[in-house]
Amino acid sequence: MGLSTHVLDTMHGTPAAGMQVALYTTEDQHATLVKRFTLNQDGRNPGGLLYDNASLKVGTYRLVFDVSGYFKGCGVSLPEPNFLNQVSLDFGVADVEQHYHVPLLVSPWSYSTYRGS
After folding, report:
1. Of the residues 27, 67, 103, 110, which has the maximum number of CB atoms within 10 A of its CB?
2. Residue 66 in contact with residue 25, Cβ under 8 Å?
3. pTM tops 0.85, yes or no
4. Which residues of 14-40 are buried (b: 16+ CB within 10 A; e: fewer)?
5. Domain span at residue 86?
6. How many other CB atoms are found less than 10 A from the CB of residue 105?
7. Is 110 inside a domain boundary?
8. 92: domain CATH number?
9. Per-residue pLDDT for the chain (117 aa), expressed as one digit of tens each?
């Protein structure tokens, strides 16, 4: 099943193609970088799953999305400092037999997430 993410740009009504994302494992206050990637035209990791079923472990994780960099790259005029810079989502994986999908719906001024399927 594994771990995946998907980002939708709610300002433009499109996938957030080109957004930079980083994935970390976390333990207490310590975060270890696993990988950085740029979202493809569908707003997803071009390599597919972030972790496949065999690699995903019970534990805590963090996805960091470069929201301001993405919107600046789209030509959106943002105030300085930006309202949203990077959005960090900390989440836990309790059952590696299930799929964990972490979508982000984002604009320069708001975001929402949920556990998808």
Report:
1. 67
2. no
3. yes
4. ebbbbbbbbbbeeeeeebeeeeebebe
5. 3-104
6. 15
7. no
8. 2.60.40.180
9. 899 999 999 999 999 999 999 999 999 989 999 999 999 999 999 999 999 989 999 999 999 999 999 999 999 999 999 999 999 999 999 999 999 999 999 999 999 999 998
